[in-house]
Amino acid sequence: MFVLFAGTSAALGFAIVPTEEGMHIGLGIGTLIFLILYLIYAASPTAVVFANMDARKLSREDLPILHNVVEEMSIAAGLPKVPDVYIINEWAPNAFAFGRSPEKAGIAVTAGLLDLLTRDELQGVVAHEVAHIKNQDTRFMTLMAVMLGAIVVMADLTWRLVRFQSVSSNTDRDRKQGNQAVTIALLIALLVSLLAPILAQIIYFASSRRREYLADACAAVYTRYPEGLASALEKIEAQAAEMTAVNRAAAPMFIINPLAVEGADSIFSTHPPTEKRIEILRRMAGGTFTAYEQAARSVIGRSVLHRSALMREAQMHSESARA
């Protein structure tokens, strides 16, 4: 993603000033755009996350059962602070986590989700969202989303500037000078502006899919009951409906795709196929990362967890055995 960001920045700079110096200018402009977008989010994360959504923060008195579940799973995950809890007035069942750090995080669920699930199923969903906070996925995916937004903005500016350059340079004087090298470079800049947003989205969604598997595995470990999340996913998928107020860049943050527009399994999917996630959870022989990894290999034929998670679990078992 960073390479695409740098390439789009350089293309923008070259479209402004078609020299090597222009590319340096573009990197500066790109960094500035990224910082502005990130600061907008950092200044009021809930306003950005809940834009166009009817959401409100819940106190323990509002919904003690949900607060208790969030607290239980936060303790199981070892979070330094229990996340804030929000409810979205939306009947499509869904949930997501957000926040710059585990100390400043929140979990939001829809009214439809609370109406649909049993306590065990709700615990599985909350454990999944807590895992995203614990694994710093909320921070990482926010940075990725901001970088994707910056790439889209710069690509659009580059497209407009290259079109302007092509019109303004179409004079007899420029044709006599024969700036073929500049023309070719501008065409390359144009190509970068067209391809970079597409490639950035592919990378962004691929990162999201990988993290969904890890969050599912963590949920099974925290609850010691994989069936809770499996049953919840089954119900959520059966009742899935498009949440039109959700921005596409925010879609990977939800437990299932809230837009329901792409195919179930493609490079533009924000989530792995729900039926595969359910099957993996139901094939687990115990609530461990190793059990999840073995189940994943049998269902989708490849590894889905990072080696560090498996090594950390093996080390914990070894220390426990010695004790």
UniProtKB/TrEMBL annotation:
Alphabetized Gene3D superfamilies for the sequence: Metalloproteases ('zincins'), catalytic domain
Gene Ontology biological process: proteolysis
Cellular localization per UniProt: Cell membrane
Binding residue positions for Zn(2+): 128, 132, 212
Membrane topology: Multi-pass membrane protein
Example of a GO MF term: metalloendopeptidase activity
Residue numbers annotated as active site: 129
Transmembrane segments: 25-51, 140-162, 182-206
Enzyme class: hydrolase
Keyword entries, A-Z: Cell membrane, Hydrolase, Membrane, Metal-binding, Metalloprotease, Protease, Transmembrane, Transmembrane helix, Zinc
The name this protein goes by in its record: Protease HtpX homolog
Recorded name of the encoding gene: htpX
